[in-house]
Amino acid sequence: MGDRDDLRKFIGDLAVVHGRVVLSSGQEADWYVDLRRVTLHHRAAPLVGRVMRDLTADWEFDAVGGLTLGADPVAFAMLHAASAADRPLDAFVVRKTGKAHGLQRRIEGPDVAGRRVLAVEDTSTTGGSVLTAVDALREAGAEVVGVAVIVDRGAGDTVRAAGLPYRAAYTLADLGLLA
Questions:
Q1: Judging by DSSP bridges, how do beta strands 143-152 and 166-171 pair with one another?
Q2: CA distances (Å), 135 to each of 32, 67, 94, 169, 176, in order?
Q3: pLDDT digit string (tens) for 96-121?
């Protein structure tokens, strides 16, 4: 089995939780994909980095990140995968709101102004979180080259309608889940 198959198994074994839940979008579902159980797992996190780097290998960017908290471990896994492949890649964190003290930065990490960046998320239903991050990145002067998620739960059309290329490592069908 390769990285992609191994990661799909981790998602199925650790992240898919059955039972009634309310999503951050406000929608209700009979199951939830809790990808933090995978992105923060000692064996799965390196797979996340490699799979997401492979997914976006033909896009040119030098920094990766998104809205905290879902994007953080994805970006950090990609940073480490890039480092292991001897390719420089910075990561950043987009705060949900601006910081009221210190440097009062909304985007933490290396400066993104004038840089080509990739916005990531663990999973996305409506695209709201990742598009919030995209808006903040553009306000900071970054050029957003695209959006990539581990699992697409339906946000693709919305993100593409906002004029951004969109990729997902897995669809719900890939995971054997019904929308």
A1: parallel
A2: 27, 11, 10, 23, 33
A3: 976 665 556 899 999 999 999 999 99
In this structure, the dihedral spanned by the alpha carbons of residues 178, 157, 60 and 71, taken in order and rounded to 10 degrees, is: -60
What is the distance between the alpha carbons of residues 76 and 129, in angstroms, rounded to a whole number? 18
- What length is written for the chain? 179
pTM: 0.93
Q: Which residues of 136-158 are buried (b: 16+ CB within 10 A; e: fewer)?
A: bbeebebebbbbbbbbbbbbbeb
Beta bridge partners of 108: 93
Backbone torsion region of residue 45, taken as left when φ is above 0, otherwise alpha when ψ lies between -120 and 50, otherwise beta: alpha
DSSP 62-91: SEEEEETTTSHHHHHHHHHHHHHTT---EE
- Rounded to a whole number of angstroms, the distance between the first and last alpha carbons of the chain is 27
Q: What gap in Å lies between CA 113 and CA 94, rounded to an integer?
A: 13
User: Which of 34, 106, 120 has the alpha carbon at shortest distance from 72?
Assistant: 120
Query: Residues 124, 67, 40, 53: what is their CA dihedral angle, to the nearest 10 degrees?
Result: 70
Q: Residue 45 and residue 78: Cα distance in Å, rounded?
A: 9
